[in-house]
What we know:
The chain is of the alpha/beta class and about 475 residues long. It has helices at about 5-20, 35-40, 55-65, 85-100, 110-125, 140-155, 160-165, 180-190, 210-225, 245-255, 310-320, 350-385, 410-425, 450-470; strands at about 135, 170-175, 195-200, 200-205, 210, 225-235, 260-265, 290, 305-310, 390, 400-405, 430-435, 440-445. β6, α10 (about 245-255) and β7 form a beta-alpha-beta unit. It is globular, with a radius of gyration of 24 Å. About 45% of the residues are buried. The protein binds pyridoxal-5'-phosphate. Pyridoxal-5'-phosphate (PLP) binds near residues 182, 263, 265, 292 and 304.
Amino acid sequence: MDGETxxxxxxxxxxxxxxxxxxxxxxxxxxxxxxxxxxxxxxPSPPEAAEAMEAIFADFERVVMPGMTxxxxxxxxxxxxxxxSPASVIAEFLTAAMGAQCLLWQTSPAATELxxxxxxxxxxxxxxxxxxxxxxxxxxxxxxxxxxxxxRERALGFRGNGEGLCGHSRxxxxxxxxxxxxIDKAAWISGIGGENVVRIPTRGPRRAMDAGALEAxxxxxxAAGFLPAGVxxxxxxxxxxxxxxxxxxxxxxxRHDLFVxxxxxxxxxxxxxxxxxxLWAGAEVADSIVLNPHKWLGAQFDCSAHFIRDVDxxxxxxxxxxxxxxxxxxxxxxNYSEWSIQTGRRFRALxxxxxxxxxxxxxxxxxxxxxxxxxxxxxxxxxxxPGFSLACEPVLSLFAFRHDPGDGRGGDAHMLALLQAVNDxxxxxxxxxxxxxxxxxxxxxxxxxxxxxxxxxxxxxxxDAARALxxxx
Length: 473
Ligand SMILES: *Cc1c(COP(=O)(O)O)cnc(C)c1O
């Protein structure tokens, strides 16, 4: 592609993106596509001859767009947000245009130094004390895997990488049942094993891990000859926002010299607001924390902030320097590939820097405070509405509710029918979860362009769908 053609299509793409964002509210939130429908529109084999950008771009609109679910839609209330602030989109374009590999300091010094600064700005923004260092990982799942590897190596005296796990005692990690599936996967991949993630019961409306039960489980494992390695604290569980008492868990962990990893992938973003920081009190004395700027904070996927208190342990676990990666004479510099699972690294710091500057921490706080207030107002309306009930206490901008028509037709099947009716309508998008064995519908407000009117509109959409299903006026 010659320079002028590139300019033309890059401008087309920019113009398309601006129109797309401006018109998002008019589109159905979730793709109304049947499995295989998009694939059927695509040729089974690649083109032998080059095609014109006109044709490729036209097919993007004709074939791809109908099969997209719109995560930036102001009435996207499913899962968790995956915000892509316009500032972040622009930074990603620049990153893509440069196409630099940012694995070592010398492969792009600005990328490394900007990462050090942007992640430290974020540390300050969420109120973590000095002494914490950070790195941008691709995802919370990778950050958690890195934390599991460090946990494992610490417990094995840093012999696991070399010797493997045979011949060592069985390692144990402790977590509640509210943690994300990436915790189980990290246990699989780190060789610790999913069966060695000991599930500690939770208590109270926050579904916090029972610290007494944790203490008892560790004691029982020690007596049985197991090797306790670490504790995973859940700050904002994916299902209904479970919140562990991190300080209490750290207290228990310290008595047994265990590593504590805090998964605050979603809720960690809210810590830019000082009033929410009591929710993760104790995180500041844990060993590792992950929070995703690619969720609430608007630095689009992938941008996961991994904060680490003892970088030496982390590097002893993950750093590997084959001859071709040695930076002779530059050993005082940071080489972030030694901090992560992957070797090649995207320039992710650029979008975080753009976002923090374009919104300011105060702008991010205002957005999050609005989402929390609007969502909790909506939860109160459901709690007061006949037939509806909350499945658990709201946490930040997340809650889950149920509907019971009161004629014996309630239960899981009715909840699924209600969810499908709401989502098929296309006005809003919600996802289900299971709370205490029964289905419930989750609601979270988090998209950057969501307004109070968008959140309020969910009430009418859901209530009308429930009425239509039950045949009531
Ligand atoms: C979203 C989420 C994850 C996974 O995040 P990725 O960045 O997609 O790996 C892990 N834990 C929690 C609590 C989450 O909300």
